[in-house]
């Protein structure tokens, strides 16, 4: 199937789904999120697909949610409308990546920011280029309680997650590797090939056995409170949109928040 915001390639038993809004640094529009969920559903239903790679075309994996679209279409949402939209397209879609029955590998280069950080870290493994960096600055730029899905402490440890979120600073590729958030760092010119080689190696394993392994590993996280913690944070994130701080940011313009962050200005 052809998509307007994605590129889907097959490499034998590996399906690579790439975010393809290069001119917008792969910012996640509503259409992109809906198409990504559809592409993942199709890949899961295809018995010939054993591993999925989630990538981003161009210089960056993803700059996060499309704030220009949010400003234009959702700035005046009611509490109920925001809850419904974010519950489905942010929280729900992310948990579908986490629960995807087949192994998933994120292929990351350049910016992996906020909503981009969120979807990449829902994948089982992460391979990144030496140019990659990870950040979630929305506590500074939007006065929001992090992103909708607080995957951070589960993939980088509690103290590092606090540092990242409290400061809004970036984590570079080598630091991400040191703290165990990514599996491998490779030169950017080798990223496509290295990620595909890893995915193809995984695809050699019997698929039902892999499915059971992933199920048990995810249940280990659930036994530690993973799903309960994520659900509780989603409520907290929604509450942060009702604060006077967030209202001030919204009045100044959501679409300008990321630009202020680049310049080091307060939101």
Structure description:
With 267 residues, this protein is α/β, with parallel strands linked by helices. It has a single domain (6-265), classed as Alpha-Beta Complex (2-enoyl-CoA Hydratase, Chain A, domain 1), CATH 3.90.226.10. It has 13 helices and nine strands. The protein has helices spanning 30-45, 67-73, 79-99, 115-120, 138-141, 152-156, 158-167, 173-178, 191-203, 207-223, 226-240, 244-252, 257-263, and strands at 6-11, 14-19, 51-56, 104-108, 111-113, 125-129, 133-135, 171-172, 184-186. The relative contact order is 0.14.
Features:
15% strand, single chain, 267 residues, 2-enoyl-CoA Hydratase, Chain A, domain 1, globular, alpha/beta, 9 strands
What is the count of structural domains? 1
CATH C-level name? Alpha Beta
CATH homologous superfamily grouping: 2-enoyl-CoA Hydratase, Chain A, domain 1
Major β-sheet profile: 6 strands, mixed
Low-confidence runs: 263-267
Total helical elements = 13
Structural class: alpha/beta
CATH architecture identity = Alpha-Beta Complex
Order of strands, main sheet, comes to 1-2-3-4-6-9
| Helix-strand sequence | EEHEHHEEHEEHHHEHEHHHHH
Mean pLDDT: 92
- Approximate strand percentage: 5-15%
How many individual β-strands? 9
Using only C-alpha atoms, the radius of gyration works out to: 18 Å
């Amino acid at each position: 199937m052809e998509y307007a915001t994605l590129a889907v390639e097959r490499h034998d038993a590996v399906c690579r789904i790439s975010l393809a809004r290069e001119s917008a640094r792969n910012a996640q529009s509503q259409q992109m999120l809906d198409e990504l969920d559809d592409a993942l559903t199709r890949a899961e239903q295809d018995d010939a697909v054993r591993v999925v790679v989630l990538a981003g075309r161009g210089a960056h994996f993803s700059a996060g949610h499309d704030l220009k679209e949010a400003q234009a279409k959702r700035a005046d949402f009611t509490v109920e409308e925001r809850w419904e939209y974010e519950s489905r397209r942010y929280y729900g879609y992310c948990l579908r990546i986490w629960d995807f029955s087949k192994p998933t590998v994120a292929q990351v280069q350049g910016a992996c920011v906020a909503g981009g950080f969120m979807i990449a870290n829902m994948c089982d493994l992460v391979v990144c280029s030496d140019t990659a960096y990870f950040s979630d600055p929305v506590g500074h730029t939007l006065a929001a309680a992090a992103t909708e899905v607080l995957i951070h402490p589960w993939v980088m440890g509690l103290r590092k997650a606090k540092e990242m979120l409290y400061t809004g600073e970036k984590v570079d590729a080598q630091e991400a590797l040191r703290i165990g958030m990514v599996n491998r760092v490779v030169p950017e010119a080798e990223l496509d090939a290295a990620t595909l080689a890893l995915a193809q190696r995984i695809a050699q394993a019997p698929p039902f056995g892999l499915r059971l392994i992933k199920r048990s590993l995810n249940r280990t996280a659930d036994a530690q409170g993973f799903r309960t913690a994520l659900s509780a944070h989603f409520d907290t994130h929604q509450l942060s949109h009702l604060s006077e701080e967030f209202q001030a940011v919204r009045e100044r313009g959501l679409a300008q928040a990321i630009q202020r962050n680049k310049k080091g200005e307060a939101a």
